[in-house]
């Protein structure tokens, strides 16, 4: 006896119209709870704090002519901290168009993130249905549907959809598959206009994210194994893809330079294959590097099979350095060598399995750190493109084991989709904003220096924004603790030292703040934030010593050092004038107060201080004149200085 009406099951399995409706609706059902989210994580880099994107359509020429992080860093050079550079203008241009029309409403961007993902699910369905129709015949429709809906539901994709920046991954795969579609159309109709569309789609994929270059190999493999085994038809397809890839690389190289990998970073957050010894980072031993890479490759398999727990952060030292013979590493060697051997030996007898392996392995190679560094050990977003191969393989197993009665496959697929859906829907709220994300994922990524540092930043934002004394005090305690934990994991983590220095600064422990900023500048003299904050700390420590200890000489020495770093700091000039005046050096005091007025002619406090200086040397007329000018500029000037105007 059938549990469900057979006609209904047949519609689910074979009705293409139902499939399109289900895929589109299911995507929005899974991710509807992200529509109320704020911008999070890298959304600031690509939208909220990207000056080119915020120009709207007028910023598009700069987006296509600059490094993808140029609009965030605001100046050339700083973006080079990212190994190999980034040139992904297509999604930035899309965001600029959205900004032109809708502004900075995060709900709109989240909507488009879901919509593009839904479109990807539909394209996966249509492309796979066409690609496998010659091998699977009538089973190609349910096969394509199973592959697409498993892909849409998989929880490992939440990072790419809930985090708007992840649209580069979605768009890259979307247009890679469209390029595959037009390649199949060329094989069917022998019309070269189809190859033009193939080239345009592939170029768009590459401009979305560079890892689309994997489809330079995947598309010919797909065409040969599953669609047309005539090499004469494949040559024009491959040449079209090759020329397109070459043009892209020339464009990319002309903007970023023709060294695709860049220089090797000596900072652990940009190069996880470093070891800390004798106060510096040195290249990790080869055995340890092999162990980290193989462990990460095993984690990718695990995340696809069992997507729990999930975290956005796998930065050092979240992935343990266990060496090349850990259980995870050994399993990785066995699994990946088995996949490669099977794909090569069985591509004729098992073309579907071989193709799914190629779809998984080829994009993964680009993010594996085997041939070139990508800046981190692994990330859930890096498995996005490769996961299609996994979904194809799972769908293939369902079709194969339930070949006699396809409806029975639904009894296996349904609970899998329910579990995936629950995980996806419950994972999405974590991405609401940075504070929610960091506080949630620190429970998983306990050994990530980057995440501890990120949390320190969240607490320091609370310090700057809150007026509640108790909340500020607690936030400073937490910020200091998180920054210290980040430094414990990575002693040369300059951003963490900056956060620690900032926590000391806000706690008015200026001596410790000065130590941290000096530590940074000794190693990275070009660090503008550390330089600026050191200048402030020297000034405030001078003020503190002068007020609390009465040590004017030492106070002046510190303030002079501060002025040496920034001669336009009005507060430091004012403090020097006050210090000189307290020692009876009226001429010097007058000099500094007048320097303030040269830079800021409407500074009421400077006029007031001049009034005091002249009063101290009995120049009453000048004194009263200065006081009157101060009052004209600020009628409350006496109250602000603890005095009452008579």
| Name given to the CATH architecture of the domain at 440-600 | Alpha Horseshoe
Our measurement of the CA-to-CA distance between the termini, rounded to an integer number of angstroms, reads: 100 Å
Please name the CATH topology of the domain at 440-600: Serine Threonine Protein Phosphatase 5, Tetratricopeptide repeat
Content-based structural category: mainly alpha
CATH class of the domain at 440-600: Mainly Alpha
Mean pLDDT: 92
Q: CATH H level of the domain at 440-600: which superfamily? A: Tetratricopeptide repeat domain
Task: Detail the poorly predicted runs.
Answer: none
Explain this structure to me?
This protein is mainly alpha-helical. The chain has helices spanning 6-14, 16-31, 43-48, 60-65, 70-73, 89-102, 106-131, 133-136, 140-153, 158-162, 167-189, 193-208, 215-227, 231-256, 286-305, 327-345, 351-366, 387-401, 407-427, 434-441, 449-465, 469-489, 494-506, 510-523, 528-549, 552-565, 570-582, 586-599, 604-616, 620-633, 637-640, and strands at residues 274-277, 280-283. Among the domains are: 37-104, no CATH class; 440-600, Alpha Horseshoe (Serine Threonine Protein Phosphatase 5, Tetratricopeptide repeat). Strands 1-2 form a two-stranded antiparallel ribbon. It is elongated and about 105 Å long. The N and C termini lie far apart (100 Å). 47% of the residues are buried. The model has no long low-confidence stretch (mean pLDDT 92).
Please outline the helices and strands.
Blueprint (H helix, E strand, L loop, with lengths): L5 H9 L1 H16 L11 H6 L11 H6 L4 H4 L15 H14 L3 H26 L1 H4 L3 H14 L4 H5 L4 H23 L3 H16 L6 H13 L3 H26 L17 E4 L2 E4 L2 H20 L21 H19 L5 H16 L20 H15 L5 H21 L6 H8 L7 H17 L3 H21 L4 H13 L3 H14 L4 H22 L2 H14 L4 H13 L3 H14 L4 H13 L3 H14 L3 H4 L6
Antiparallel strand pairs: 1-2
Helix pairs in contact: 2-7, 2-9, 7-9, 7-11, 9-18, 9-19, 11-12, 11-13, 12-14, 13-14, 13-17, 15-16, 16-17, 17-18, 20-21, 21-22, 21-23, 22-23, 23-24, 23-25, 24-25, 25-26, 26-27, 27-28, 28-29, 29-30
């Amino acid at each position: 006896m059938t549990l469900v009406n057979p006609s209904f099951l047949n519609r689910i399995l074979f009705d293409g119209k139902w499939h399109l409706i289900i895929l589109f609706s299911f995507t929005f059902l899974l991710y509807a709870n992200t529509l109320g989210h704020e911008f999070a994580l890298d959304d600031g880099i690509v939208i909220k704090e990207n000056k080119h994107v915020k120009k709207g359509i007028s910023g598009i020429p700069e987006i296509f002519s600059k490094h993808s992080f140029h609009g965030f860093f605001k100046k050339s050079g700083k973006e080079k901290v990212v190994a190999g550079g980034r040139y992904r203008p297509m999604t930035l241009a899309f965001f600029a168009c959205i900004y032109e029309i809708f502004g900075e409403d995060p709900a709109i961007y989240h909507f488009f993130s879901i919509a593009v993902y839904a479109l990807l699910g539909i394209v996966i369905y249509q492309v796979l249905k066409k690609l496998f129709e010659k091998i699977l015949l009538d089973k190609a429709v349910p096969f394509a549907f199973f592959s697409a809906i498993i892909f849409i539901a998989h929880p490992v994709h939440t990072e790419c959809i809930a985090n708007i920046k992840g649209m580069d991954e979605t768009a890259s795969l979307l247009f890679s598959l469209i390029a595959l579609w037009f390649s199949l159309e060329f094989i069917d109709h022998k019309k070269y206009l189809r190859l033009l569309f193939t080239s345009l789609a592939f170029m768009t994929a590459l401009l979305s994210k560079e890892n689309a270059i994997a489809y330079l190999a995947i598309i010919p493999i797909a065409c040969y194994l599953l669609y047309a085994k005539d090499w004469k038809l494949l040559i024009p397809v491959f040449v079209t893809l090759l020329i397109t890839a070459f043009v892209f690389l020339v464009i990319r190289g002309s903007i970023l330079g023709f060294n695709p990998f860049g220089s090797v970073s000596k900072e652990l957050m940009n190069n996880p294959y470093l070891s800390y010894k004798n106060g510096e980072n040195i290249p990790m031993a080869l055995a340890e590097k092999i162990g980290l890479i193989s462990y990460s490759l095993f984690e990718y398999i695990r995340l696809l099979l069992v997507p729990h727990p999930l975290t956005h952060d796998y930065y050092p030292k979240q992935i343990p350095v266990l060496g090349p013979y850990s259980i995870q590493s050994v399993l990785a060697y066995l699994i990946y060598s088995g996949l490669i051997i099977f794909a090569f030996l069985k591509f004729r007898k098992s073309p579907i399995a071989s193709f799914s392996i190629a779809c998984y392995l080829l994009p993964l190679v680009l993010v594996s750190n085997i041939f070139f560094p990508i800046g981190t050990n692994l990330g859930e977003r890096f498995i996005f493109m490769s996961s299609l191969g996994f979904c194809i393989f799972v769908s293939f197993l369902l079709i194969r084991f339930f070949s006699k009665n396809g409806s029975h496959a639904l009894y296996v697929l349904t609970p899998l989709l329910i579990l995936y859906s629950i995980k996806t829907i419950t994972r999405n709220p974590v991405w609401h904003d940075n504070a929610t994300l960091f506080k949630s994922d620190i429970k998983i990524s306990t050994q990530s220096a980057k995440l501890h540092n990120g949390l320190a930043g969240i607490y320091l934002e609370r310090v700057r924004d809150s007026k509640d004394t108790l909340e500020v005090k607690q936030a400073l305690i937490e910020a200091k603790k998180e920054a210290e934990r980040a430094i414990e994991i990575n002693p040369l983590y300059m951003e963490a030292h900056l956060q620690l220095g900032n926590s000391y600064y806000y706690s008015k422990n200026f001596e410790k703040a000065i130590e941290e900023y000096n530590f940074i500048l000794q190693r990275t003299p070009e660090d503008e934030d550390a330089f600026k904050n050191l200048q402030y700390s020297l000034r405030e420590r001078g003020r503190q010593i002068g007020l609390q200890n009465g040590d004017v000489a030492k106070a002046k020495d510190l303030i002079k050092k501060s002025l040496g770093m920034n001669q336009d700091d009005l507060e430091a000039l004012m403090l020097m004038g006050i210090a000189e005046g307290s020692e009876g050096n009226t001429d010097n005091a007058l000099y500094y107060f007048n320097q303030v007025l040269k830079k800021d002619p409407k500074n009421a406090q400077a006029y007031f201080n001049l009034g005091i200086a002249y009063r101290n040397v009995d120049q009453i007329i000048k004194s009263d004149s200065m006081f009157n000018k101060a009052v004209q500029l600020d009628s409350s000037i006496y109250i602000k200085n603890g005095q009452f105007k008579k």
